[in-house]
């Protein structure tokens, strides 16, 4: 058991950079939150561009929603936050006109 703990203690510092460096990202579908008002979010790790990558994914998703309706996007708000350990979350609120 002591050997197991010793090995884990030596390898634990290597796990943090691997977890932070993994290319994780997700995005939500555009959801209607009011009359003619929609919202979408995206989360990106530093390897996927952090805030810049999350903003790009969210805006791409918002544009797809408006394109599907034959309309143009009008962004009304953009909110950026950070999520553990170093990911960025961007939420875009928009209208399709």
Folded structure, characterized:
There is one protein chain. The chain has helices at 2-21, 50-68, and strands at 25-27, 31-34, 37-44, 73-83, 87-96. The protein has 97 residues and is α+β, with helices and mostly antiparallel strands. The protein has one domain (23-96). Strands 1, 2, 3, 4 and 5 form a five-stranded antiparallel beta sheet that branches. Strand 4 and strand 5 form a beta hairpin. The longest helix is centred in the N-terminal third of the chain and has 20 residues, at 2-21. The chain is elongated, with a radius of gyration of 19 Å. The model is unreliable at 1-9 and 11-21 (pLDDT under 50).
- pLDDT under 50 segments (min length 5)? 1-9, 11-21
- The number of helical elements comes to 2
- The mean pLDDT is 84
Q: Roughly what fraction of the amino acids lie in strands?
A: 35-45%
SSE string: HEEEHEE
Overall structural class, as computed from helix and strand content, comes to alpha+beta
Tell me the domain tally: 1
Structural Rg: 19 Å
The biggest sheet amounts to: 5 strands, antiparallel
Helicity level: 40-55%
Shape: elongated
β-strand number: 5
The rounded distance between the terminal residues' Cα atoms is 65 Å
What's the gist of this structure?
The protein is α+β, with helices and mostly antiparallel strands. The protein has helices at 2-21, 50-68, and strands spanning 25-27, 31-34, 37-44, 73-83, 87-96.
